[in-house]
Structure formats: structure tokens, C-alpha cells
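tmp note - Protein involved in gliding motility GldG
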Amino acid sequence: MKKNKTSLYILAILVGLVLVNLLSSTVFKRFDLTKDQRYTLSENSKTLISDLDSPLIIDVFLEGDFPSEFRLLQTEVRQIIEEFQLQTDQIFINYINPIEDETTRERNIEELTKSGLEPYINTDNSTGKVTQDIIFPWAFASYKGETVKIPLLKRSITQGLQEQINNSVQALEYAFADGFNKLVNAKSKKIAILKGNGELDDIYMADFLTTVKPYYNLAPFTLDSVANNPQGTLDKLKDYDLIVVAKPSVPFSENEKLVLDQYTMNGGKSLWLTEAVAMDKDSLYNAAGRGVSIMRDLHLNDFFFQYGVRVNPTLVKDLYSAPIMLSIGEGSQAQMQPIQWQYSPLAASNPNHAITKNLNLVKFDFASPIDTLKNSIKKSILLQSSPKSKLEGAPTTISLDAVTQSPDEASYNQGPQNLAVLLEGEFTSVYNQRVLPFKVKDFKTQSNATKMVVISDGDVVKNEVLRNRPQQLGFDQLTGKSFGNKEFLLNTVNYLLDDSGLINIRSKEINVAFLDADKIKEEKSKWQFINIALPLIVLGLFGFLFNYLRKRKYTA
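out:
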């Protein structure tokens, strides 16, 4: 009887194991036990890849034997790709080490660099010997014959490698979702690049336009026709979801302002990169090495005042600023050197807003401060100068010789100045209870809910041009430093056009814990002793004591 009962137990266990294996082969479930849900894709990401009807191939070049920080990023990349693959069987992955084969190493580096995949040169001197590793923290995603590049590392000139890795891990889902979005979703929204009031030529906006083009339909739009057919111009402008006004230099007429005002009243979004002081760095490169800043009146003061902001006709000087390259010395001894230039503030971002979260510093040139005024419009400060700022009135003479003089730091005491402001809400018309310059069909005094961003420097969107070729926006060719201008503008456009999916993914918080490198170096010997020698000592003492007690027990 007992034997039969034992046999039944064994049979039940075997049947149970078979059933568990069958169930586990058909049902798969992962549990994300992390506090910040880092391995759980947002619903926006899942929706983005839910309708893939062709293979989406990802080539990841972050492969090889890396320092610990990059190994963490490497692991996180694999984890996030696995999460995407769990949502669809159309995603295929290739992990490629482009520098593994010595025979093709140089060619691969050259080809990837030409494709825009800038390598990261990691310098390590922790062992007392300086070593350098070439790392490509990039990926390609291909779908239906189209390919986009995906940055895996968010670089910053002000942060250490650990902070950069931390920000990169936080941005991984956004980086892949953003790339997939370019490949999968058809462009539907339209952006008008305003012309006719002395705005920047396309060659000086080329990198910004190239960056935005994969997401939206772009078209130039001139206000010249306002003089003859203002209503027709307004009707055409209403077809666009966003207008971009980049560094206008010719004043706006009342007819043009009314067209722009009614565009806003009908729910149109706008991005203004405007200036209240006329001054450019190019104006200083003359025999005298100086120029005069003058007030630039675009006739927009009442326009912005009604909406809740004022761009003041002064310049912001900041001790925390970008350098300018100047020739120091005479004759053959002259050398190009980077010198701090207080007229180029490096604006800090608002860490609590989706547009500017985890954003690198944004470079300005001759920026003006923005005041916010009390009204019903919600205002969010996106970018500010540092607390060590001062204001300089216009007109004033600005000379390159000033860089050779040490600034009076005590005078830089006017606190952070607003350089970019987001306005959201229902706007009141500039022409409310005013005589209209022309008769408007269905004139509105109150807008639908809409958004506007005002930036007090047109140079934020301006890329350098060398040999008639536009350069990368936010990258200083002379100093080799990269700034956050391009990412800031792209995030701004995404936000204004209600691409909330990408913005929400970008706002996801992930906390990455790193070991303290300095503490590791200081306490290395102590922890080596605790983890290696101490267990052996304890084991030896236990063996000695065990043998001693055993011998004593059996010899007594």
C-alpha cells in the first residue's frame, strides 16, 4: 500500500512538471520589479511599433570590451531592444563591433564617421597608464528601404562620463522611439518658415531644417502678399500648424501683425527667434575689431506685450559663457586661442520641463533678457543665463579687445536672465478693442488653446557656414565643443505640435546608481582584503577549530 502511494506521488510530480513545462512554453510573462519601471515600455512606444508590416532591422555598434560605464549602457541597450522585440516579431537586431577586425578597422571608422556617427574617445588613466578606446555609441534602424541613425550616448561638455551615461540610459527608449517614428509614421503636420522680413537665409538654417524635415512637411511662406491681399494670405497661413520666425531684421507692418495675430487666434502655434538689439559677431571682424550694438525695433513690442512677454533692448553678459577664438600675439608668433566671451551666454535648461529635461547647455550670441508679464497665459521659463549675469544697454561699442581684460566679477550680480519662454493658453488678440488695419473675415478676439515659444536670440538656430557649406548646428568648429541648440529646437517643435507621445517618453525618469570611482581608489586595498583574504582566513580558522574539536572528541 505504501509502495503504491509513493508511486502515485512520483507520478503526480512528473505530470506536474510536464504541465508546467507545457504552460511555460506557451505563456511568457516578464515582471518589471524596478522602482522606476525602467524595463517597461510606455504605451506610446508600444503603439508606435504595433503596426509594423515589414522587418525593422537595428544595427548596434556599441559592441566590444568597454569600461564599466559603457558596459552599463551596453546592457541597458540590449534590455530596451528586448522589450521592443517582445512587442512584435518584426524587429531584428545585429550587434556589430566595427573595430574588432584590424584589417577593416580604419576603413570602418572612416565610413561610420562619414555617415555622421561621431566616435567617442574614452581616455582612461585609472591604472596610472593612459589608454584610449574608440567607441561608437550609435545604432542604425532600417525599415522599407529607409535608414535613420540613433544616438545611444547623450554627450555634454559640462558633465562627467557617469552623468552622461545616466542621462543616456534615461533617454534610450526615447532615442529608439524617435528613430522608429521617423521610419514608421507618415508626415502630416506642416511648418511654415516665414520669409519677407529679413529672416535668416536657408543656408544658415540648413541643419535645423534638415533635423526637422523627417518629422514634418516644411515650406517657405512669405508675408509679401499681405500688402495686396491680406485676407488671402491669412487664409493660406491657417493651413499650417506652426510658423517659425528666425531672426527677422525688417519691421513688421500692422497688416502683417494682424495676419499673425489672427493666425494665433485660430489656434496656430509659433516659434519666435527674435532680437531687440542688432549685433552680430561678424560685425566685429574688421580692422578696428569693434562694432556698435543698436536697438532693433521690429514693431513687435505691443504684439508680445499683449501675449505676456517683453523682449528688452539690452544685452546679457554672462561669466558662464562660450569662448571666442582670437589670434593672440604678433606676426609669426600669433596663435589662435579660445578666450571667454561674455556676450555668448551658455543657457541652463529647466530640468522640470519636457522640452529641456536632460538638455545640454544652449549657446546664445548677443541675447536679450525676456520679462514675463501678468495675464492669464501660463508661462514656463525654458532657458536662463547663469546667476553671474549683467545687463548692458544699447547703443554701446563692443570691442574684441575687451576679451584681454579680466571682467569685474563683482558687477555680474543681476542674477539669471530669461532667454526662452513658453506661453500656453487662450490668448487675447493684440487688436482687441482697436481699429483694425484691414477688415478680417471672422475676426477673433480670443484664441483657441494654443502655444508659443519666444527666444531672445536668432543665432540659437543659426549654423556656421564654411566654404559655402552649412555646418552642424550647436557644434563649434574652432573649439570642438557641442551645445544643445539642435536638440532644444527639435524638442520645442515637437512640443508645440503636440507630439506628446515622444515628449512623454523623453520625460521618463530612470535612476542609475554608480560606484564612486574616487572612493574605490582610496579603499581598494581594504575591500580586496575583505572580499578575498578575509573569507580565506575565516575558512582556515573554522577548519583548524573543527579539526581541533573533532580530535579532542575522539581521543578523549
